[in-house]
Amino acid sequence: MGLPQKIMVIRHGEKPQGAIPPYGVTTAGEQDAHSLLVQGWARAGALAVLFAPSRGALQSEALAQPNIIFAASDDGGKSSRRPEETVSVVAQKLSLDVDTTYAVGREAELVDAVKSCGGVVLIGWEHKHIPLIANAILGNTSAPQQWPVERFDMVWVFDLDAAGAAYGFSQVPELVMPGDSAEPFPT
To answer: Which of 12, 17, 136, 168 could make a disulfide contact with 111, Cβ separation 3.0–4.6 Å?
Structure first.
């Protein structure tokens, strides 16, 4: 199938801060520390419009509509469901399944799988491990090596060069929620 032309990586939406309000909530409306806050669910809905607008062009020409979506596994309930929840609305809108084969800590395996996909790939992941995904895609550490803990509002974009040999890196601000920043992360 060949390498994907574009790989886009996002952090999961807003999350609870421990066992204090506001709490995470499941799709069934039940309190859950491993799920998104209501604000995170709002971001998930806004991302569906960012990656698959119902009318008009994409907000940024650096983005593309995904044809394959990956998210970090909840590892049998041992970790967060937030990455999958965040991309679930995009997947539903595009009638795609979310591949949750890989858990946090298996970033190299994830990238190997992604590189066998072709097309345009969207990945939802946990922020502390996104730089590991970037390093595996790029083959170097030229992308930022930290995702700021307070930021949920950036898309890391990897575009395959014309020769099909290497990926370039850029950051695209989501700008879908109040308070989202247009400032890229420092490298």
So the answer is: 136
Host domain of residue 65: 6-15+24-173
AA identity, residue 48: A
Q: Which residues contact 88 (CB under 8 A, 6 or more apart)?
A: 44, 71, 98
- Does residue 142 fall inside a structural domain? yes
The token pair that represents 169 in the structure block: 């890196």
Using the structure block, give the residue that is written with the tokens 């999961």.
12
Q: Helix, strand or coil for residue 161?
A: coil
Q: What is the pTM of this model?
A: 0.96
Number of domains in the chain: 1
pLDDT tens figures, 61-117? 999 999 999 999 988 777 789 999 999 999 999 999 999 999 999 999 999 999 999
Q: CA-CA distance, 184 to 69, in Å (whole number)?
A: 24
